[in-house]
Amino acid sequence: MKIIPLSVQEKADHGFTHKIIIPYTDMTGWTSGTAYSIYPTLGTASAATGTGTIPAGTRVRACAVNVSTAFTFAAGTLVHKIGDGSVADRFVASLDLKTAGYTENTPTTKPYIYGVADTIDITITCGAGTPATIAAGELHVFIALSDTAGLEV
User: Fold this and answer.
1) What pTM, to 2 d.p., does this model score?
2) Over the stretch 14-47, which tens digit does the pLDDT of each residue have?
3) How many CA within 13 A on the CB side of residue 31?
4) What are the residues whose beta carbons fall under 8 Å from the beta carbon of 70, sequence distance 6 or more?
């Protein structure tokens, strides 16, 4: 997984603050056909778990995904969703990774402001077989985050 903070110009043009690239090679080490979660470090990194948390007061305005290269997985379904520790599909409901294309979703509570620190969870589920047999594919996730902690209300 590669996390790219977007430039000021890209933020202005598209409204997203981060791009997360997940190639199929990140999944081939998983050992069973079950759900796996990826926790991109968009805020502070936890030394104990290696997972990233976003601090309380973070606002998520929007989330978009681009399956830039359709995933090749003959064993069954391969889907993903994006949410957090409370609602697994808060930002993106189940989406087929075997079909290339762009989907933009906005949070169910628009915008969503975190009252406590949490993680952004990208959950990938294999319907059958093992992820080791994934032969191709790349997912790009775009997310718009802002810090509201310093704003006066």
Assistant:
1) 0.89
2) 999 999 999 999 988 888 778 888 888 876 544 4
3) 0
4) 97, 98, 99, 100, 136, 137
